[in-house]
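User: My instructor asked us to take a sequence, write out its structure as tokens, and then describe one feature of it. I'm not sure where to start. Here is the sequence I was given:
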Amino acid sequence: MKTREKLERLKIEYKEKIEIPEKYKKFFWDCPSGAVILEKYILRILTYGNFEEIREIYNRYPEETFKIAFKYPEIKRGAKFWIKRWKELKI
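Assistant: Let's start with the prediction itself. The structure tokens for your sequence are:
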């Protein structure tokens, strides 16, 4: 592994603070305050959530979810596929 390359850090776009719903608290083990920035919230749901949770987050924040899904490389291909499909169908 090359260590001489400069790694680019991704800038956070959505800094709005939101309260974490009770059913998603398991994804935010490092946020004891109960509030988190929107981008981190969506990223964790996309990373660890199931299909229904991802669909719910897309319905609440469609544009933000779409941008974040294609911004971070660790998001699974299946999640990206469905988010792109929902955007095409305008669900």
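For the description part of your assignment, you could build on this observation: Residues 16 and 38 are 6 Å apart (CA to CA). Try explaining in your own words what that tells you about the chain.
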